[in-house]
Amino acid sequence: MDQISDVRNFGAIVRTAECTGVDCIIIQSSGSAPVNGDAIKTSSGAVFNVPICKVSHIKDAIFLLKQLNVKIYGASCKSIPRSSQIATGEENNIRINVYGSKGALKWEQENPNYLFKLSDDQPLQVLKPGHAYNSNISLDGTKLPPGHPEGIFDAMANIYKGVARAINGESFEKAEFPPIEDGVRGMDFIEKSLESNSKGNVWVELNK
Predict the structure, then answer these.
(1) pLDDT tens sequence across 102-133
(2) Lower Cβ count inside 10 Å, N or C end of the chain?
């Protein structure tokens, strides 16, 4: 890897490298991201599993590998980065558009569960996490089944936080978590639904 200076980008690449079976990563001793705590965290510990070699110059490492009959491949792309901290009305939104000769991909941070795939001869495709058509590395990184947004963890955490405040005798808002009455009404709704079905799908009055 040449001139990857952002430690989080570096960690993410190392994590991907481990998942794809990379044998070794070569970085330049100067100008590269440090292998520190942030790199370890972002890589999910992959920095301990993939050997990382530091060299004075990447070109010298490539020359040596070619001398050892190792095939060398390079990958690069042209892009137009645009960033701003004063874009009026915008939120903290990262957008990535990749355009190739046969298709394109579009993704944005504010709608992270949607990856748009475009092509000239096919309708627009919307790819979502958790489905079998995704790659193995994508499925391995998906914590929830299809249809469940990642934010559901934060939503549940907010409920737990309100309950913890109530248990500890701290001040809390009534809307922070559902009371026991809501739970009883929910169970009653389920029982009445089953009763309605057993009676031929008739209307059944809920308990008040």
Answers:
(1) 889 999 888 888 999 999 888 999 999 888 88
(2) C
